[in-house]
Specification:
mainly beta; T-fold; four-stranded antiparallel β-sheet; two-stranded antiparallel ribbon
């Protein structure tokens, strides 16, 4: 696509995004209410992936127990590679809740945060 002149590219694989160019504004919805956007990230390339159980149901399994993961409701990872971001987001869902002391939501800024 870039060879043909595209400067802003967004490839969506089941909600996980690989981005080229930018800026791209990506909203992260609440796992409780699809109409609520919890955070908007502005990215200039890279990837962003969210894993959780609120879209597809209980489909994530804990590899240690073989049981349905009951950790975090969702996790979003931003990084340079879509496959790695997706794997890390899924691992965070399995590992459990990440909370801050105020509103039970934690954000960590990494690669690509504008």
């Amino acid at each position: 696509m870039r060879d043909h002149g595209a400067t802003f590219i967004q490839v969506n694989g089941a909600g996980d995004l690989s981005l080229f160019g930018g800026p791209h504004k990506i909203g992260i919805r609440s796992p409780e209410d699809a109409k609520v956007i919890l955070k908007i990230f502005e990215l200039n390339g890279g990837a962003i992936a969210t894993s959780g159980t609120y879209e597809r149901g209980a489909h994530i399994r804990d590899p240690h127990t073989g049981l349905i993961a009951i950790g975090a409701r969702s996790a979003t990872v931003i990084g340079p590679d879509g496959g790695l971001a997706d794997a890390l987001a899924t691992a965070l869902v399995v590992s459990g809740r990440v909370i801050d002391r105020h509103d039970e939501v934690a954000w960590s800024v990494g690669f690509g945060h504008g």
